[in-house]
């Protein structure tokens, strides 16, 4: 996709037989890594990922669930803050990369939603996050049950999250990945 304004993809079982159950969708958004996202080395400064992931959630609510994020905050006075985020950065993203951010719903609670979020450049995983959102009354600043109109639309994005082998997410203590020659001369 070249037009970022049309960079939403709903990945599901396109062309599936009518009798086959539909697979849950992943909400995806392409993001061009800009200078503003990067540190002086030209790689994404990790706090910027959290800004990008928040934007993904806003877009998912508006474009994926059909619930205007702005309307939710301004008119309904309903917030949906992140209360927990566990993020693993597997490879650096650099200025000019096209990062594809995608999310699926892993859990629907009474007042909270669990998400699995991935960031990829091509087929290469750059980050993986487990995120918990809570629905919040902005007047009382207390959690409230997920509104029915939102809860009813979450199902299309629900799927169990496959476990990733720990070695695929691990980084050396110094944070620098190195190629090895099959273990003979590993650094």
From TrEMBL:
GO terms for molecular function: fatty acyl-CoA hydrolase activity. Residues 166-187 are annotated as: Disordered. Residues 175-187 have a biased composition (Basic and acidic residues). Pfam families: 4HBT_2 (PF13279). PANTHER family: 4-HYDROXYBENZOYL-COA THIOESTERASE FAMILY MEMBER, LONG-CHAIN ACYL-COA THIOESTERASE FADM. This is 4-hydroxybenzoyl-CoA thioesterase. It comes from Aromatoleum tolulyticum. The lineage of its organism: Bacteria, Pseudomonadati, Pseudomonadota, Betaproteobacteria, Rhodocyclales.
